[in-house]
Structure formats: C-alpha cells, structure tokens
C-alpha cells in the first residue's frame, strides 16, 4: 500500500534520515547543533529525541574533528552522516576529506570501506554573508574517491539521502539551503515506494531550442527561465545533473545533439568550475552538433558579496534568457 506525503525538501530530508536510521542501527548523525536544536535549518529536528544521544550526536565546533571521527567510525562498521552547518565552514575539515576519507578505500585495495555522508547546505539567497552562502562543490568534485551529489527537489532529497547513506563510498551531499522550506516546491512522495537511482542526470523539462544544464538551487532558475522562454516561442530543455562526481553527461550529450545549443548554469564562480568541465566535455563529444559555443551563466569570480548585493551576484532568469538569445544570435 502506498503512503503519499506532500513534503518540502527539508521535511523530505528529515524523513529520509529517519527511515535510514530505522532500517540500520549503524547509521549515526553527528554535527554542530544537530541534536537538541535539530540543526540550524531544522533538518534533523526530532531525531535525537527519538533515537537518543548515542545515535544523534551534538559535536564541538570542529569540522576536522567531526570528519576525523566519522572516518574512525566507518572503519569500525558504522555509517556516519555528518552535517556541516554552512558550506563555508567545511574547510577546516578539507584535509580529512581529501587526504583520508577519499583515499582509504583505494589505499587498502577495497578492504576498508568509507560509508560516510557529509551533508552540506550550500548556495546563496538567504541574506547571509560569506562563509554562509558559497558554492564550493567544484573543489570536491575534483578529488578522486568522492561521490558528489546535489539535489534540487523533495523527491530526490528523500530518496537521495537514503541512497547516499547506503553507499560504501564517501558522499558529499550538497543541499540548496534557500529551498529547504519552500512551499512552492512541495512534492508528493510515496515514502514506501521503490526509488529511481538519483546518482544520474535527469531531463526535467523537454525542449528543442536549446539545452540548459543545472544542479542544486539553479535548477529552479532554469525551469523558471524555460517557462518564461515558452511565452517567447522558445523551447528550452532543462537537465538536472544531480550527480556532480562522477558526472553523468550522457543525457546532456543526447540533448545537445538535438538542440545544438547549451547553456551551463551554476551559482559557483566560473573559473575552473563544473560549468568549465561541462563545456569542455560537450565540445569534445558534440562538436559537429553545436550551432553556437557553449555559454555559461554563473556567479562572479569574486568573494560572495554582502547580502544586499546578492541578488545582483546570483544567476537569475534574465541572465539565462540573455544567454539563450546570445546563443540563438550566433
């Protein structure tokens, strides 16, 4: 019997974590304020009350300690889920992630598995300053040994966090914080159903004029742009990458061979980024199908600005539509 529930992204993550903990007593949650407070975004609300302080652990303000402890727990057979409070706080733990977490499975020829999930609220749009609004996902996608995922909707949030926890490889799970509690993004989810695999790209809107590829919070921007473009007689195909490492670009290649045009969209700065990699790979694989250069719509190559300037920094509908017009004019 199905159990349909209409959930926000935040609530979907909470229920996904709850189900993973119910199914496997080796799943632990740890991080700053994840217990009594339920996390600053309330994603872990109620979990310590129901599962106890031995499974939902409030940690010191020490990201390297959180990740290092998770590595040790994984060696002993646990499946730790670490919360980084804001994406900009992750860098004290960068050494643990890149030097240990990403390497131990390979270094031990598969004998030691690292089933660790690191949840990372990321992106802007919440009126905060630097260290609270950034997009560092390209840094981690560059490190072999890590899976990097970014969800954009409640369905993928619910099933994706469970699939990440079941993975024997470390997963960085990037969550669009400004969309956590968006009522407009509520979705009906059969919480007892069988999920599709979320470690793959997905066409979320079909079109023929141009392809727009995005991930995380930028997927909503792409879909809004596609809806606006339709009023102008343009048909945009929108692809949600979902998995950032390893990249699943098969659906992107197929789409570009159909439309002949690609706009890569992301909040992150453009230099040496995932949009750079997408542009390079599409040029390699789809050169003779392209009718125009691959264009990118991104954040600027500056530190994240003060809150009153972020609406000028973040890619929006108008910047996407302008890129589409530039592509069509080529």
Write structural notes for this entry.
This protein is an alpha/beta fold and 330 residues long. The protein has twelve helices and 14 strands. It has a seven-stranded mixed β-sheet, sandwiched between helices. Strand 2 (27-31), helix 2 (47-51) and strand 3 form a beta-alpha-beta unit. The radius of gyration is 20 Å and the shape is globular.
Topology:
Blueprint: E1 4-7, H1 9-23, E2 27-31, H2 47-51, E3 56-58, H3 63-75, E4 79-83, H4 94-101, H5 104-107, E5 117-122, H6 137-141, E6 147-150, H7 154-166, E7 171-176, E8 187-190, E9 202-205, E10 210-214, H8 218-230, E11 236-240, E12 243-245, H9 250-259, E13 262-269, H10 274-286, E14 295-299, H11 310-313, H12 317-328
Parallel strand pairs: 2-3, 2-4, 4-5, 5-7, 6-7, 10-11, 10-13, 13-14
Antiparallel strand pairs: 1-8, 6-12, 9-11
Helix pairs in contact: 1-7, 3-4, 8-12
Strand content: 15-25%
As laid out across the biggest beta sheet, the strand order is 3-2-4-5-7-6-12
Percentage of residues assigned to helices: 25-40%
**Helix-strand sequence:** EHEHEHEHHEHEHEEEEHEEHEHEHH
Computed over alpha carbons, the radius of gyration is 20 Å
Quickly give the structural class.
alpha/beta
β-strand number: 14
Tally of helical segments:
12
Label the overall shape.
globular
Q: Runs with pLDDT <50, length 5+?
A: none
Distance between the termini: 53 Å
Mean pLDDT over the full residue set: 95
Main sheet attributes: strand count, strand direction, barrel closure: 7 strands, mixed
Keywords: Oxidoreductase, Pyruvate, Thiamine pyrophosphate
Pfam families: Transket_pyr, Transketolase_C
Cofactor: thiamine diphosphate
Domain Transketolase-like pyrimidine-binding: 7-182
């Amino acid at each position: 019997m199905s159990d349909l529930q209409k959930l926000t992204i935040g609530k979907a993550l909470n229920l996904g974590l709850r189900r993973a903990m119910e199914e496997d007593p080796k799943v632990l949650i740890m991080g700053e304020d994840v217990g009594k407070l339920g996390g600053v975004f309330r994603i872990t609300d109620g979990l310590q009350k129901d599962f106890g302080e031995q499974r939902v652990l409030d940690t010191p303000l020490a990201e390297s300690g959180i990740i290092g402890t998770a590595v040790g727990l994984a060696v002993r057979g646990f499946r730790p889920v670490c919360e980084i409070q804001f994406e900009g706080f992750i860098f004290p733990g960068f050494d643990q992630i890149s030097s240990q977490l990403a390497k131990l499975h390979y270094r031990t020829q598969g004998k030691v598995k690292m089933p660790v999930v690191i949840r990372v609220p990321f992106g802007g749009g919440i009126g905060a300053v630097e260290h609270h609004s950034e997009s560092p996902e390209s840094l981690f996608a560059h490190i072999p040994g890590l899976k990097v995922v970014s969800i954009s909707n409640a369905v993928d949030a619910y099933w994706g966090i469970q699939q990440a926890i079941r993975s024997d490889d470390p997963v960085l799970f990037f969550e669009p914080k400004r969309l956590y509690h968006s009522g407009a993004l509520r979705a009906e989810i059969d919480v007892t159903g069988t999920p599709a695999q979320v470690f793959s790209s997905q066409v979320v809107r079909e079109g023929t004029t141009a392809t727009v590829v995005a991930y995380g919070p930028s997927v909503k921007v792409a879909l809004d742009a596609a809806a606006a473009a339709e009023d102008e007689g343009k048909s945009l195909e929108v692809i949600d990458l979902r998995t950032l490492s390893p990249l699943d670009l098969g659906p992107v290649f197929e789409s570009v061979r159909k439309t002949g045009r690609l706009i890569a969209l992301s909040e992150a700065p453009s230099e040496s980024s995932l949009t750079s990699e997408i542009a390079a790979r599409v040029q390699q694989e789809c050169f003779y199908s392209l009718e125009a250069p691959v264009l990118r719509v991104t954040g600027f190559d500056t530190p994240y600005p003060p809150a009153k300037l972020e609406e000028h920094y973040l890619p929006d509908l108008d910047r996407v539509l302008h890129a589409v017009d530039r592509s069509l004019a080529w």
